[in-house]
Amino acid sequence: MVEMNHDWEAVREVFGKWWRREKLPRPLLVLTSPTRGPAARPQLDIESRWLDQAYILSGVERRFMETHYWAEAFPYMWPDLGPGSFGAFLGACPQFFPDTVWYKPVSEPMTSTSLALNQQSRWWQWSLTMAEKSVKEAKGRWLVAIPDLVENLDTLAAVFGTETVLFALHDAPHDIHRLQSALLPLWEEAFDRHYEVAQDDKGWSAFAAFSIWGPGRTAKVQCDISAMLSPSMFDEFVFPYLQEQCRFLDSSIYHLDGRSAVQHLPSLLRIDGLDCIQWTPGAGEPDGGDPVWDDIYRQTLDSGRCIHAHMPLSRVRDFVKRFGTTGVLIITQAASDREAAALLEDLS
What we know:
Layout: H1 8-19, E1 28-34, H2 46-51, H3 53-65, E2 67-71, E3 76-77, H4 85-89, E4 93-96, E5 101-104, H5 122-138, E6 143-144, H6 152-160, H7 162-171, H8 173-198, E7 205-207, E8 212-214, E9 218-222, H9 231-237, H10 239-248, E10 251-257, H11 265-268, E11 276-280, H12 294-302, E12 306-310, H13 313-323, E13 328-333, H14 337-347
Parallel strand pairs: 1-13, 3-6, 9-10, 10-11, 11-12, 12-13
Antiparallel strand pairs: 1-2, 4-5, 7-8
Helix pairs in contact: 5-8, 6-7, 8-10
């Protein structure tokens, strides 16, 4: 059994100051280094690798043994059915692959379908059982995070298919609004049921995919399909629903994904209750610390929000020189403990 030696209260204090945009001596730093090479594991079929709960929990313990957590990095796991398990709770069927999960849409037409959580489904039961077992096994040694539910138009795309949703935005906008309105309380119910299980003793929760921990209901929100929408369509079909979700959450972060989505940043920065922008450049683009993206970070900080940036360790020092430490979260990996310690010394 892994015995984690982690100063949880010190990490909580820094995260709290970051969310409140209080001045910090260095940025909030999610920094890890390997302690040893990955250990060999038994080979299971693909679906078992995703769903066998004993296998998943043993893999969590192995990962923690193979990782050194520095600064505000923390060990975590979450009930992972891929990016968008909310869609599976509504009827989409997960399709498992070695490194990701896709969802097979339902066959019912969007125009005549009502959405409902199927709490008797295999996927809902698996997600909650996995969360409960993880909390029991963790015993305070790691955080159990809220799953990557996904929301809004991205969930409709998982349930009905991307092409169907895109055509409906033009041909049946009333159905898009009807379904978006129906999604809100269902998403809140799914979130709260997992939050009841995963919250810590102070009511904080974590969203593992971005290594964030925050007071109250903490989550990422997104709309990746917005890369195919005009600003006016975003404001009509996405903005009001995102705003309601951010009001529901206590600590919120928006996943801004790719160049085509950057056009919506001004609208995002008008959302009441949105605390942070997480920028993902996308495949084939410069990494998140490259100066080519500085305007995204500068606009976000100037609006009073926090920024969340993932970059190679070699970029970190210059990034901090450009943006300082207030409201700045950086995720990076060191090749060794020595490299990690040197970075921390330079930034302190």
